Amino acid sequence: MEALAVHPSGEYFAMGGRLRGGDWNVALFDLSGGGRVGALKTGYRVTDLSFTADGKRLVVVVRKVNPIRSRTASNHTLDASKFTTFSDA
């Protein structure tokens, strides 16, 4: 689990993270019984979750690191972990 958010009604909570198989997802659970209500594969690392105040939407913040290898040119190193791509859907 990487991120957690509780619905404003207190009836549900959302978790974002990686499944054992390696897929990144967001899942919605019933707070009283813990049963999963639904899930969505994001394809990206989930870094934060937040419900809107009215509880109608769940904001999912994701991060995708480009598969760029570190390179050395003129004694300057580019760190591939610094490059990210953001998607707005």
Give a verbal description of the structure.
The chain has 89 residues and is an all-beta fold. It is 0% helix and 53% strand. The protein has no helices and nine strands. It has strands spanning 3-6, 12-18, 24-30, 36-41, 45-51, 58-65, 71-73, 76-78, 84-85. It starts with a strand and ends with a strand. Residues 67-89 have low confidence and may be disordered.
Overall pLDDT, averaged?
76
**Strand order in the sheet with the most strands:** 1-2-3-4
Number of helices: 0
Range of helix content: under 10%
Largest sheet, in brief, is: 4 strands, antiparallel
Instruction: Give me the strand/helix succession.
Output: EEEEEEEEE
Number of E-state strands: 9
Question: What share of residues are in beta strands?
Answer: over 45%
Class per helix and strand makeup: mainly beta
Shape: globular
Question: Could you name the ranges where pLDDT drops below 50 across 5 or more consecutive residues?
Answer: 67-89
* Radius of gyration computed on alpha carbons: 17 Å
Distance between the termini: 22 Å
